[in-house]
Design a protein that fits this description.
Blueprint (H helix, E strand, L loop, with lengths): L7 H9 L2 H29 L5 H28 L2 H24 L6 H27 L5
Helix pairs in contact: 2-3, 2-5, 3-5, 4-5
Length: 144
Amino acid sequence: ADDQGTFAPLFRVFGRSLRPLGLMICMWMLMGTLCGQLSSLSFVFDVSYGLSTTGIFVCMSLLAMSALGGCAFCCLMLVFNTSWQVLRFGMTWLLAFGTSFLVMGIIHSKPPMFAFLGFAAAYIFGLNVLMGPLRSVLAEPFGD
């Protein structure tokens, strides 16, 4: 019988380094951000820009294509770079576009619809570039 319980391997990994815990929290927060954005953007397009159902469908389809493009770009980058390098690239990308969203909110600016859609698509693209390497780097210490 294991005296330390079923969580002993997990505690052993966290005892060596808190980096995996930070990556877990990062992934948990980023997935919630992505889901929150996708669930609320249709209302933003409707209320702020007055788009019809067809327009909202087209915009959300473009966001889905940017998510798939982010996954494809991630796979392409992983051919030539390490997971950590792609992870850093994705974090830098998110910092740039996340900061721009924050600034737009603080100054109460309402950019043209295509600019807003471009920022949202770029942010979602970056999130999907980031998720693949984040999962592999997160699982790395648990392979021992």
